[in-house]
Amino acid sequence: MTRHLTTDDAGLAEAAALLGAGEIVALPTETVYGLAADARNGEAVARVYRAKGRPAFNPLIVHVADAEAAAELVEMTDDAERLAAAFWPGALTMVLPLRDDAGIAPLVTAGLPTLGVRVPDHPAARALLRKTGPLAAPSANLSGRISPTSAEHVLAGLDGKIAAVLDGGPCPVGLESTIVGLLPEPTLLRAGGLPVEALERCLGTALQEPGDPGSAPISPGQLSSHYAPAGRVRLAVESPLEGETYLGFGPHEGDLTLSRSGDLVEAAAALFGCLHQLDAMGATAIAVAPIPDHGLGRAINDRLRRAAAPR
Ligand code: TXA
Ligand code: MG
């Protein structure tokens, strides 16, 4: 059963309590409804992917209450400070270098060293964020469906799959946020609710677009497919060869194990941390245990196949 919560004090307190307990809750923003999880809780984040039925792990946007909270998570460049002062709260997501001490679950960034952050311009969302801290939230639709702009839209896709929806009425903007990469060249990653012209006026320069000559090689798609361990990777291995570092799952225990009990939520939460750990161990040959190809297993296998692809 999905609870239907109002945006009064009791509803906000209930939403915060659910999120604090690792549950997932749809929340209103000025752009579209987001499906939120505690950004520091990898298993809660894994539940977001599971509920959406996403067949792949794309990095998620993290929502914070104000620019000060953002500065605890990312390195705010001068351009980022300028854009934040002009457009936050608002329909602008900035992709910036992730701070080492941010404490964000690796699944949120799909293992990348960058983070997309935004301060939503919605009183209920910000009141909730002040209680909970950073919330990772993609749009609250099933994978492949359009973004929801009302609590009814959210429930049409996700009723019974999420703990609650916080009903803040219809979303005034109705379009997803504009995403700008600042790594450090200002680059348009997704057009959205904030016009590009307004951003360019504020920065005093044109935004690059991925693929422009001389632009930094970034786009959500490219970036999200590029974290892979340095070692060669073999998949669906029941008994590793000598010299291979074994990444285990369920009954196949490894040097590192994604989930001893064979729990796909736990495995998804552990995945990118384990891949980074394999690099830190200097693993040159990696064998991965078989992972069932259903539910979150599909996204885990998608990511592992990319890691195993010849480079
Ligand atoms: O308005 C919005 O942005 C809504 C509300 C809920 O805030 N959220 C939203 O999230 O549209 P989602 O997950 O549907 O789209 C997020 C996009 C994805 O295309 C993802 O690849 C990109 O943001 N993204 C997030 N973090 C990124 C990163 N570190 N680098 C590159 N792209 C990133
Ligand atoms: Mg979306």
Strand content: 15-25%
Here the CATH topology of the largest domain equals DHBP synthase
Annotated CATH architecture of the largest domain = Alpha-Beta Complex
What is the number of independent domains?
A: 2
The percent of residues in helical segments reads: 25-40%
Uncertain runs are 216-225
**Could you give me the name of the CATH homologous superfamily of the largest domain?**
DHBP synthase
Q: What is the CA-CA span between the terminal residues?
A: 45 Å
The CATH first-level class of the largest domain comes to Alpha Beta
Sheet with the most strands? Answer: 10 strands, mixed
Report strand order across the widest sheet. 1-8-2-3-7-4-6-5-9-10
Number of helices: 10
Please state the CA-atom Rg, rounded to the nearest Å: 20 Å
Outline type? globular
Number of strands: 14
Protein name: Threonylcarbamoyl-AMP synthase
Pfam family, one: Sua5_yciO_yrdC
Organism: Pelagovum pacificum
Catalytic activity: L-threonine + hydrogencarbonate + ATP = L-threonylcarbamoyladenylate + diphosphate + H2O
Helix and strand topology:
Blueprint: E1 3-6, H1 9-20, E2 25-27, E3 34-38, H2 42-52, E4 61-63, H3 67-71, H4 78-87, E5 92-97, E6 114-118, H5 123-132, E7 135-136, H6 151-158, E8 164-167, E9 178-182, E10 186-190, H7 196-203, H8 220-224, E11 232-234, E12 245-248, E13 256-257, H9 264-280, E14 285-288, H10 296-308
The chain binds threonylcarbamoyladenylate and magnesium ion.
Threonylcarbamoyladenylate (TXA) is lined by residues 29, 31-32, 34, 58-61, 93, 95, 109, 112, 114-116, 118, 137-139, 176-177, 179, 189, 220, 223-224.
